[in-house]
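Fig. S4 source data, part A: sequence.
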Amino acid sequence: MPTKHDAAKQLVRTQVWDALDAADAVYDDTAHGRIPNFKGSDLAAARLAELDAWKKSRVIKAVPDKAQLPVRARALEEGKLVYMAVPKLATLKPFYLLDPAALDVPPLEAAASRVAATVAPTVEVDALRPVDVVVLGSVAVNRDGARIGKGAGYSDLEFALLTEAGLVGPNTLVVTTVHSLQVIDSPIPVTDHDVNVDLVITPEAMIECTSPRRPKGIFWDHLDASKIAAIPALQARVNR
């Protein structure tokens, strides 16, 4: 059943989507219903790549959304290993392994989610290497680091799985790349399982967040039986 937090988050989503559409700030016909594929995403990726933490990183975990395609492509171009989630975490091996040393297509092509599904092997959580940088997509984010996605909750679940496996921790940098119109000044309601970001990267600026926070693992009491049943990697942990 939707909560008051759900309603508040949906209101923020709608306001941000409307603002992006009014400004003609996305490549799609509309920003509504998705992680916005914002204009200037390549500039945001370039700004992210200027960070020392990025330059030193070897393993990146990134969402499969179009807005973060330039980030994934740049990572591969720079020889970094990239993990990207299988849609809806629907397989027992829920992450694509994009290894630039093993790819036979150009980085920009391999980094596209549809192509990755055909050229990259999938791997189990326990087969992943520790992650240096996590790149999230967002509909909205504020300067505290609180963010809102599309509402399905998969990014938070991916993060929780990696945390429980010991693959992300206090030293893992968590960032989101967004359009400046997606950065809001109002509070964003968060729950225990929501992941905040350390940095917000726009085409024009880098914002250090004031209240970065991250869950310590999976909150099983927040998941109903149907959600667990739909995600084999969760089922496997329940059955251990």
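Fig. S4 source data, part B ends here. The chain has a mean pLDDT of 91.
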